[in-house]
Write a structure and sequence with these properties.
517 residues; alpha/beta; TIM Barrel; UDP-N-acetylmuramoyl-L-alanine:D-glutamate ligase; 2 domains; nine-stranded mixed β-sheet; 20 helices; binds adenosine-5'-triphosphate; binds 2-(4-methyl-thiazol-5-yl)-ethanol
Length: 517
C-alpha cells in the first residue's frame, strides 16, 4: 500500500490522563473526528505493550471508519502490530533513521523538534512531518522556555520553502490562539504551518466535537490570512490616497460614536491620556485590574496596553485584556514604553507579542528598534541606527516600520519629529506636529490612546486609524504651540488638550502633511 496523503490541519494527540471524565478516550477520538480532526496520534507513555496494542486496535477501528490516519507515539512495535498508518517519535526516542528503517517507506513518520537544527536534521533523516514545539506552556510539557509564534517562525524559516516536509505546531494550542499562531509564524520564506497538534484543547474539552470544529475553523481562518500575508495581497485595503481623503470622516464618526477604550496604562500619564481621549471625542476607562478585564471586553471597543510603569499586576491585566480583545476581535494597541531599557521590559514586550495578536504597535524609534530585534527582523538589511541616521535614529525609518509591520502582520506607528506608519503594504510619513509635544511627558502615550479611539471606529483599516490618530494630535500640537497664551511646556500641556477638542474634520484634510512612501 502506498503512503496515504495526509491532511495535517487538525491533528489530535491523545492523552488518557487529560481525557474529560465524562467520556472514554475512544469517544473523544470519534467525537473529535466528527468535529474535523484530520489525523490522530495515540500517545500512551505508561501502557505496557500488550495493553497499548489492544487500545490501538480499538482506536484504529474508529479512525479507519472515517478514513483518518492513525499514528502511534514512540512505539514502532505497536504501530507495526496494528498496521497503523505511521508513527511519531520524540528527540529522546528511537532515532528517525531507525524508525524509518523499521516502518518502511510507505508509513508516515513524524518527529518532535524544538530548534532549527533539529528541524533540518529531521528533514535529512526522512521524516514526513515535524511537530514544532513547545509553543506555549501546557499541562503536559513545561520547558524552561517556550517558542511562541516567533520561535516557531524561526524554525519554519530554517527549512527550504519547496521541500515537501510538513510542519505542525504543538504546545498549548487552543481555539483562542490558533489564528494568531498560524499568522505570526508564517515565514518570510513563504512557509506556513500545515496544521495544529492539539491535546488538552480536544481531549480535555467538555465537548470534543464542538472544540474540534472551532479549532478547525480557526486554523482555516489563520491559514487564509497567512497566505494573503505571504502573497502581499492588497485585496480589501484602500489606497493611501483614499485613506487620506477619509480622515475628516473618521474624526466625525469618532465624535458621533464616542467609542470606549480600555486603557491598561502607566501611572504617569493616566490622567493626560484620559483627558486627551475625551477631548478627541472618545471615552476612556482606565482599568489596571486583571479581574475585570473579561467583563470590560464586552463593553469596550478597543484596548491600549502600555508598559510604562511595569508591575506584575499590570502585566497580568495586559494579558487578560489582550486575550479577551482578541477573542472579540476588538483592536489592541500596544505601546512598548522604554522597551529596550531593561530586561523586564524586553521580556514583557516579547511575551505580549507572543501571547496575543497586537493590531497596532506604537512606539518611538528606540522602542520600535527593540521590537524589531525581539521579533527577529533583519536589522542589517533595514539599516538601523546607521552613521548617517536621520533625527529619529534610522537610515531608512520607512523600511523599518514596513519590515516590522510585515513580520508581525500588524500596523506599526513610529513617532518622532516625523512619524512613520505602515501596515506592510502602505507606508506614509507624517510631517505634522510640534517640538513642544516632545517636551511634555506622555505625548506618545496620548498618541496611542488617539489611535485606539480611531481603531475602534475603523475596525477594517487600522492603518487609517493609526494615521488619523497621529495626525489629529499633531495638528492639535501645532495649533496649541501657535497660541499666544502658550509660553512653555506647562501652558502647552493645557492648550494641547483644548486644541484636541477644537480640531475640525476639515483640518484633517487641509493641514495634513502626509507623504506616501
Ligand atoms: N520635534 C517634534 N516635531 C514634531 N512633532 C513631534 C516632535 N517631537 C514629538 N513630536 C510628536 O509627539 C508625539 C509623540 O512622539 P514621541 O516620539 O515624542 O513619543 P514618546 O517618546 O513615546 O513620548 P512619551 O514616552 O513621553 O509618551 C508624536 O505625535 C510626534 O509626532
Ligand atoms: C516618565 C514615564 N515613566 C514611566 S512611563 C512614563 C511616561 C512616558 O510614557
Amino acid at each position: 500500500m502506498s503512503k496515504p496523503v495526509v491532511d495535517y490541519s487538525l491533528y489530535l494527540v491523545t492523552d488518557s490522563g487529560l481525557n474529560h471524565p465524562s467520556r472514554t478516550l475512544l469517544q473523544s477520538v470519534e467525537d473529535s473526528i466528527l468535529g474535523g480532526v484530520t489525523l490522530v496520534q495515540l500517545r500512551e507513555k505508561d501502557l505496557p505493550t500488550d495493553a497499548f496494542i489492544d487500545l490501538a486496535r480499538k482506536v484504529h477501528a474508529i479512525t479507519k471508519k472515517y478514513n483518518v490516519p492513525l499514528l502511534i507515539n514512540d512505539n514502532i512495535e505497536v504501530a507495526l502490530a496494528i498496521d497503523a498508518e505511521g508513527a511519531h517519535v520524540g528527540q529522546d526516542d528511537i532515532s528517525c533513521v531507525k524508525a524509518r528503517q523499521l516502518l518502511g517507506p510507505n508509513k508516515i513518520l513524524g518527529i518532535s523538534t524544538g530548534t532549527p537544527e533539529e528541524a533540518k536534521k529531521a528533514l535529512a533523516d526522512g521524516a514526513d512531518y515535524i511537530g514544532i514545539g513547545t509553543c506555549f506552556m501546557t499541562q503536559t510539557k513545561s520547558p524552561k522556555r517556550t517558542l511562541g509564534p516567533i520561535g516557531v517562525r524561526t524554525i519554519l524559516e530554517a527549512l527550504p520553502a519547496d521541500h515537501p516536509l510538513k510542519t505542525v505546531v504543538i504546545g498549548g494550542i487552543k481555539d483562542d490562539n490558533t489564528r494568531r499562531v498560524i499568522i505570526h509564524s508564517a515565514g518570510a520564506n513563504g512557509r506556513i504551518l500545515d496544521g495544529i497538534a492539539v491535546v488538552t484543547g480536544i481531549v480535555g474539552a467538555k465537548d470534543a466535537k464542538v472544540a474540534s470544529e472551532k479549532l478547525h475553523s480557526e486554523f482555516k481562518a489563520g491559514f487564509d490570512i497567512a497566505t494573503k500575508k505571504i502573497k502581499g495581497d492588497m485585496t480589501g485595503r484602500a489606497t493611501v490616497d483614499s485613506v487620506l481623503k477619509s480622515l475628516p470622516q473618521l474624526l466625525t464618526t469618532l465624535r458621533e460614536k464616542s467609542p470606549l477604550t480600555h486603557h491598561v496604562s502607566n501611572y504617569v500619564v493616566m490622567n493626560d491620556t484620559a483627558n486627551a481621549t475625551l477631548a478627541l471625542g472618545g471615552s476612556p476607562i482606565m482599568a489596571p485590574s486583571a479581574v475585570e478585564a473579561e467583563d470590560l471586553s464586552n463593553v469596550v471597543s478597543s484596548v491600549v496596553l502600555n508598559i510604562g510603569t511595569l508591575t506584575e499586576s499590570f502585566v497580568d491585566c495586559m494579558y487578560e485584556a489582550g486575550k479577551h480583545a482578541n477573542r472579540q476581535s476588538k483592536p489592541v494597541v500596544f505601546d512598548p514604553v522604554g522597551a529596550g531599557a531593561t530586561t523586564l521590559r524586553r521580556e514583557t514586550t516579547r511575551k505580549i507579542l507572543n501571547a496575543m495578536h497586537v493590531d497596532i504597535i506604537k512606539g518611538n524609534a528606540g522602542e520600535i528598534s527593540t521590537v524589531a530585534s525581539l521579533i527577529g527582523c533583519d536589522t542589517e538589511s533595514i539599516a538601523m541606527r546607521g552613521v548617517d541616521s536621520l533625527g529619529n535614529g534610522f537610515v531608512n525609518p520607512a523600511a523599518v516600520v514596513q519590515a516590522v509591520a510585515t513580520r508581525e502582520n500588524c500596523v506599526v506607528a513610529m513617532t518622532g519629529t516625523i512619524d512613520y506608519v505602515s501596515d506592510g503594504y502602505r507606508t506614509v510619513a507624517i510631517e505634522n506636529g510640534h517640538a513642544y509635544q516632545g517636551r511634555i511627558t506622555g505625548s506618545g502615550c496620548m498618541v496611542a490612546s488617539s489611535i485606539a479611539s480611531f481603531a475602534a471606529i475603523s475596525p477594517n483599516d487600522h492603518f487609517a486609524a493609526a494615521v488619523a490618530g497621529i495626525l489629529a494630535l499633531n495638528l492639535a500640537g501645532e495649533h496649541a504651540a501657535a497660541r499666544s497664551d502658550v509660553h512653555g511646556p506647562g501652558t502647552f500641556r493645557a492648550a494641547f488638550i483644548d486644541e484636541i477638542a477644537n480640531l475640525t474634520p476639515e483640518q484633517m484634510l487641509s493641514e495634513a502633511k502626509i507623504k506616501a512612501i
